[in-house]
Amino acid sequence: MSNLSDKLDERKFFVASIEETEPPEGMSEGKWYQYTIGRGDSAITGIRSGSRQSVIRHAEEFADNLNQRSSLGYSAYAARRLQK
User: Nearest CA to 35 among 10, 11, 60?
Assistant: First the structure.
């Protein structure tokens, strides 16, 4: 049973890391964090300013959104089409 659970976990996006980082060039104000969203061997890295807690919330919402899109059969990596 744990083998099935491991396979299902490999298909879920999760917040792999959040680390304080230097601000991007030309941006000097505030604290900046680099976050990594992982899934299996894949990783998506982003950077965001704010408090550590607000960046954690952002990264968790990002991972949840990717999981939701994947569960509906959409590519998690492709841009969404806007409905008119």
Answer: 60
More confident residue, 30 or 78: 30
- The predicted-structure confidence for 21-67, as pLDDT tens digits, reads as follows 999 988 878 899 999 999 988 899 999 999 999 999 999 999 999 99
- CA distance between the termini of the chain: 44
Phi and psi at 75, nearest 5°, equal -70, 130
The two tokens of residue 16 are 């792999």
Nearest 5°: the CA angle 38, 81, 72 is 55
Of 52, 55, 62, 49, give the one whose Cα is nearest residue 12.
62
Name the amino acid, one letter, at 82: L
How far apart CA 12 and CA 54 sit, in angstroms, is: 22
